[in-house]
Amino acid sequence: MKTKLLLSALLGMAAWSFSGVATANWDTGACPGGGSAPCIETEINGNTYHFNGSGGHADIWHGRPAAEGGGDFVFEGDGTELICNLDLNCTLALSGQVKKCQDSTGAWRIGVKVNDADVSNGTFCGLVNVSGFPWYSKDASITPHCPFEDDCDSFIPYDPNATSYTGNFGDINVSALGMTLVDNEHVHGVVFTPGVGANFDFQSYFYDCGENPDCYIDGTLTVNNATSLDVK
């Protein structure tokens, strides 16, 4: 059966809640350009912030800037389908954080962490529980795909010329009405497109660590508490 999930709030970004330390580490203004390291930039309420391309702010999870109230970046998508063994039409809120870091070879990578989820707005939707947080992004080329952890060597490689980034996400748990639907599983090929209206596109089965598929998710989540989130 098809479970339609309105993913309305990701990438507490699926709170993509932050510590005061994490949310404070943004500089005001746009990315200066010309740096060898990634620069991550956001615009909120007409104000622009970045953590720069000089190598500073490395290996620190960043939520929304403290000047804008902190918290997580929230992503939402309308009409996202979860094809499983329940037929629900819900709103699913996901929120999370982003960071840049250098792996063991010195190469720069981009990490995404999903911290919380909330399911609502539909029959039985309040009985759906999503857990397993935090979920981490992982370079899809690394096998085996499991485990998913806060390890820079496993995050998505930075490419200054990229217009999007693709990775896997896990570990994810979903249950409803006393039934386990997804148990410590992950999704493949999630595409993050940075910039104005930054979004995550999900079109994947949920896989266990043996790469056995079961439920399926299909939907696009767009940032709803920032004008943009960019990687430069």
Can you offer a commentary on this structure?
With 232 residues, the chain is mainly beta. The chain has one domain (2-231). It has one helix and 16 strands. Strands 1, 5, 6, 7, 8, 9, 10, 11, 12, 14 and 15 form an eleven-stranded mixed β-sheet that branches. A hairpin with a 5-residue loop joins β6 (89-102) and β7.
Strand and helix map with partners:
Blueprint: E1 2-7, H1 20-24, E2 27-28, E3 40-44, E4 47-51, E5 73-83, E6 89-102, E7 108-120, E8 128-131, E9 135-139, E10 156-157, E11 165-176, E12 179-193, E13 195-196, E14 199-207, E15 213-223, E16 228-231
Parallel strand pairs: 1-6
Antiparallel strand pairs: 1-5, 2-4, 3-4, 3-16, 5-6, 5-15, 6-7, 7-9, 7-10, 8-11, 9-11, 11-12, 12-14, 13-16, 14-15
In short:
By secondary structure, this protein is mostly beta strands. The chain has one helix at 20-24, and strands at residues 2-7, 27-28, 40-44, 47-51, 73-83, 89-102, 108-120, 128-131, 135-139, 156-157, 165-176, 179-193, 195-196, 199-207, 213-223, 228-231.
Beta-strand fraction estimate: over 45%
Mean pLDDT: 86
Biggest β-sheet strands, sense, barrel: 11 strands, mixed
Task: Evaluate the radius of gyration.
Answer: 17 Å
| General form | globular
**Helix residue percentage:** under 10%
The H/E string reads EHEEEEEEEEEEEEEEE
Tell me the number of helical segments per DSSP (H or I, 4 or more residues long): 1
Structural class: mainly beta
For the record, the count of structural domains works out to: 1
Distance between the termini: 41 Å
Counted beta strands: 16
Low-confidence stretches: 1-24
